[in-house]
């Protein structure tokens, strides 16, 4: 009912069964994930302010690349910086100013920065992720050949860069399955094909 009670959300976000109260502006950037049961609150009041009771009305801003963990609450007036991690069941009562920061607790506090991996560690991590995919592919009824020349990964005729997410080549339902699996590790390859794999299981 307020003239500035606007909701804005950018590209490639995932939201679940969330409660988003838009009494004041709520701005969500790109590549943001809101886990199940996350609440965003932009106002709080009850008893009369003339009796000394509090009332607060203020918007919420969530920058690009933020993940908000399961059952967390983001309260009015909060801004969350780019690529931050909000741990599950956290209550965010003040700004999270550190980019690439991890915040947890009630009230949520800064714990540490996300530490980038070395090139060798990245290569080892990709090998581990691909190794864990083979039994999943077999369960889905096929045996892929996946080649790693880090940062490039190739399956059949489909090749992508694990750091820039650029891709080229021919896609099919098998590469879709692998692409969707990689998204579970934050390697979000978005192509012209549907986001969901097209396998049906008996």
Give the termini separation: 50 Å
Number of strands: 20
What structural class do helix, strand and pairing data support? alpha/beta
The top level CATH class name of the largest domain: Mainly Beta
Helix content bin = 10-25%
Largest sheet: 6 strands, mixed
What's the number of helices? 2
Low-confidence spans = none
Give Rg in angstroms: 21 Å
Beta-sheet strand percentage? 25-35%
Bulk shape: elongated
Task: Say which CATH homologous superfamily of the largest domain is assigned.
Answer: Hexapeptide repeat proteins
Q: Give the helices and strands as they follow along the chain.
A: EEEEEEEEEEEEEEEEHEEEEH
For the record, the count of structural domains works out to 2
Averaged pLDDT? 94
CATH topology of the largest domain: UDP N-Acetylglucosamine Acyltransferase, domain 1
CATH architecture of the largest domain: 3 Solenoid
Strand order of the largest sheet: 2-5-10-13-15-16
Explain what you see.
With 202 residues, the protein is of the alpha/beta class. The protein has two domains: 7-113, UDP N-Acetylglucosamine Acyltransferase, domain 1, CATH 2.160.10.10; 119-183, no CATH class. Helix content is 16%, strand content 27%. The protein contains two helices and 20 strands. The chain has helices at 119-139, 173-183; strands at 7-9, 14-15, 19-20, 26-28, 33-34, 39-40, 43-44, 56-57, 60-62, 67-68, 73-74, 79-80, 85-86, 91-92, 101-104, 109-113, 146-149, 152-155, 158-161, 167-169. The strands form five sheets. Strands 2-5-10-13-15-16 form a six-stranded mixed beta sheet, with no helix packed on it. A four-stranded parallel beta sheet has the order 1-4-9-12, with no helix packed on it. β18 (152-155) and β19 form a beta hairpin. It starts with 6 loop residues before the first strand and ends in a 19-residue tail after the last helix.
């Amino acid at each position: 009912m307020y003239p500035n009670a606007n909701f804005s959300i950018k590209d490639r976000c995932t939201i679940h069964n969330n409660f988003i109260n838009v009494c004041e502006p709520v701005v969500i950037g790109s590549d943001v994930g809101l886990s199940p049961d996350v609440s965003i609150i932009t106002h709080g009041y009850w008893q009369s302010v003339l009796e000394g009771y509090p009332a607060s009305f203020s918007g919420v801003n969530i920058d690009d690349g933020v993940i908000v963990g399961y059952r967390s609450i983001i309260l009015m007036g909060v801004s969350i910086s780019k690529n931050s991690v909000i741990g599950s069941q956290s209550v965010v009562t003040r700004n999270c100013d550190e980019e690439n920061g991890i915040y947890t607790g009630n009230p949520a506090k800064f714990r540490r920065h996300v530490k980038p991996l070395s090139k060798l560690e990245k290569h080892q991590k990709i090998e581990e992720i691909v190794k864990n995919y083979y039994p999943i592919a077999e369960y889905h009824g096929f045996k892929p050949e996946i080649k790693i020349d880090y940062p490039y990964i190739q399956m059949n005729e489909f090749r992508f860069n694990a750091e820039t997410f650029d891709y080229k080549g021919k896609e099919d339902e098998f590469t879709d399955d692998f692409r969707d699996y990689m998204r579970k590790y934050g390697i979000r390859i978005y192509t012209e094909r549907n986001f969901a794999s097209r396998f049906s299981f008996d």
